[in-house]
Design goal:
Blueprint: H1 3-13, E1 16-30, H2 35-38, E2 41-46, E3 49-54, E4 60-65, H3 82-91, E5 97-112, E6 118-130, E7 136-138, E8 142-147, H4 152-165, H5 175-182, H6 204-221, H7 223-228, H8 232-251, H9 258-274, H10 276-286, H11 288-292, H12 297-300, H13 304-325, H14 328-342, H15 359-379, H16 387-411, H17 414-452, H18 457-489, H19 492-501
Antiparallel strand pairs: 1-2, 1-5, 2-3, 3-4, 5-6, 6-7, 6-8
Helix pairs in contact: 6-8, 6-14, 6-15, 8-9, 8-10, 8-16, 10-13, 15-16, 16-17, 17-18
């Protein structure tokens, strides 16, 4: 139905009063991974108002008079108020980025009752997506229904008239999703987590290749955001996918040609190392307020020089990171790795004993083996164990978690795999806190000479010493919590379920 036809149909079927007409420029924003989309919301700037709206209904939840925001936009950049609080809760450390710009021509109308009171508001919209050199891509015309408080029955009646008598059809997607799709984007953003549907009887090499191709896609998708330093999560998600790729390379190595695999493992190890310093410093800067809160209030302002040193180091680390990610070495690695995965099934199977085995069989074997390794490693840890033993158990735990998330969820019983992942996460949280505190203490001690050179360096050093002491206390507390977390992970019931679920 055309807009003109819609206007005539509405006027003939409902008691309509014309309202204002106008043109609007509407800019939509969301995080790269679509956190607002997942919450059923959109952030929109239109007519000098920045608003958080419900995607399905268009109802405004919160609005703020503001100029078009600069990009990237963080919740903390906004002035104090409900919009900042809501966005901070929804987006955490992620940046809000431009999604799409839509130009709309709108005609507003009111549906009246017998007393000439407005019971429902309607708006006919002709929308287009702005393109290069002024070329616009038209979007489907829409009729928006806005309820009026206290007139729910009238709204339902109007909706019935529109659908049953006039032939209007409910929109199959919100305007913003249509606009993003027409612009070539992905409605809902780009998730960092992947779930590849695998068949239990699928060849192990094709299953592994499918998972690794998806992980490569996540790495490549997060590359530019990492280089542009849009927010810290781009680098985090890139590194997680590199680690997951390395875990698959290591745990399912018998599905790959060994000589070629060894070269790629070396290159992925280099990529992990090349991105490590920048990520570590990201974490230290992000957690600075939490670390600052650990020292007495009278000392907190004295930690200012520490933040300056951390930020300076982070800037240098990011500069080195950009050089590595833009290098021919990285570009060649990604293209060669993709080509290797695409031709994997054609490789000589004499050196790949697990290649043709069912993926469920190979995955179960590896999950069971890594779990048993973790149980043995954890049983050997006591209060006097060196930090390295905790660290090695943490690394092995990451391998198990990646196997469960990448293969276990798709191939085995969810009522076993998902609780197992939750229990493993609890253990990892304790091990991670222990490792993080150890790393933080070592880093802060190494920064002491730089901090001492700052203005009021003596006070800063005293505050730094207090912070190091508190972090060391928390490291010891994590050790104390280890036994309880490990006992749950290695319980008799958990061992029984692992043995039964991942039997081969």
């Amino acid at each position: 139905m055309t807009l003109r036809g819609a206007e005539e149909a509405l006027a003939g079927a409902l008691p309509i009063e014309d309202g204002p007409q106008g043109e609007h420029l509407r800019n939509y924003y969301d995080t790269f991974d679509g956190l607002l989309h997942a919450a059923g919301l959109s952030l929109v700037h239109e007519d000098s108002m920045l608003s958080l709206i419900e995607r399905e209904t268009g109802l405004v939840r919160i609005s703020l008079q503001a100029p078009p925001p600069s990009m990237p936009l963080f919740a903390a950049d906004l002035g104090e108020g409900p919009l900042r609080d809501a966005l901070r809760e929804l987006t955490d450390v992620r940046a809000l980025l431009p999604l799409v710009q839509v130009h709309t021509s709108e005609r507003r109308m009111s549906v009246l009752d017998g007393e000439r009171k407005t019971v429902v508001r309607l708006a006919l919209e002709a929308a287009s997506l702005g393109g290069a050199a002024g070329v616009a891509s038209p979007l489907r015309p829409r009729l928006r229904i806005t309820p009026v408080r206290g007139y729910d029955l009238e709204r339902s009646s109007v909706r019935d008239t529109l659908e049953q008598d006039l032939g209007f059809k409910p929109a199959d997607e919100p305007l913003v999703d249509e606009a993003v799709r027409v612009a070539g984007g992905l409605p809902g953003g780009f998730p960092a987590k992947i779930l590849i549907p695998l068949r239990p009887d699928q060849r192990a090499d094709t299953g592994a290749a499918a998972v690794l191709r998806a992980l490569l896609g996540v790495i490549e998708a997060n590359l530019e955001g990492t280089i542009e330093d849009l927010d810290s999560e781009f680098l985090h998600d890139l590194r997680v996918s590199v680690r997951r790729s390395r875990a698959v390379q290591r745990e399912l190595r018998r599905v790959f040609p060994p000589a070629e695999l060894e070269k790629f493992r070396g290159e992925f190890r280099w990529l992990q190392q090349a991105t490590g310093d920048a990520r570590d410093l990201d974490v230290h800067v992000l957690e600075f307020d939490a670390m600052r809160a650990l020292v007495p209030e009278s000392m907190r302002d004295d930690l200012g020089p520490l933040l300056g040193v951390l930020r300076a180091r982070r800037t240098h680390a990011h500069y080195r990171l950009v050089g590595d990610l833009r290098s021919e070495r990285t570009t060649s690695l990604f293209s060669a790795w993709r080509a290797f995965l695409d031709r994997l099934q054609e490789a000589d199977e004499s050196e790949r004993p697990d290649a043709a085995r069912p993926i469920a069989e190979v995955a179960a074997e590896r999950i069971r083996k890594v779990y048993r390794q973790m149980v043995r490693m954890g049983d050997a840890i006591d209060e006097s164990s060196p930090a390295e033993q905790y660290h090695e158990l943490r690394k092995k735990g990451k391998e198990l978690r990646y196997l469960l998330e990448l293969f276990g969820v798709s191939l085995f019983e969810g009522e076993v795999v998902k609780p197992m992942i939750r229990t493993l996460k609890g253990l990892q949280d304790v091990l991670g806190r222990h490792q993080d505190r150890e790393v933080q203490v070592a880093l802060l001690r190494s920064l002491a000479p730089e901090v001492a050179k700052a203005e009021r360096g003596e006070a800063a050093l005293m505050a730094l010493g207090a912070l190091i002491a508190r972090l060391a206390e928390d490291e010891r507390a994590a050790r104390d919590e280890f036994a309880g977390s490990f006992a749950e992970f290695a319980s008799k019931e958990q061992r029984r379920q692992v043995k039964e679920t991942f039997a081969t």
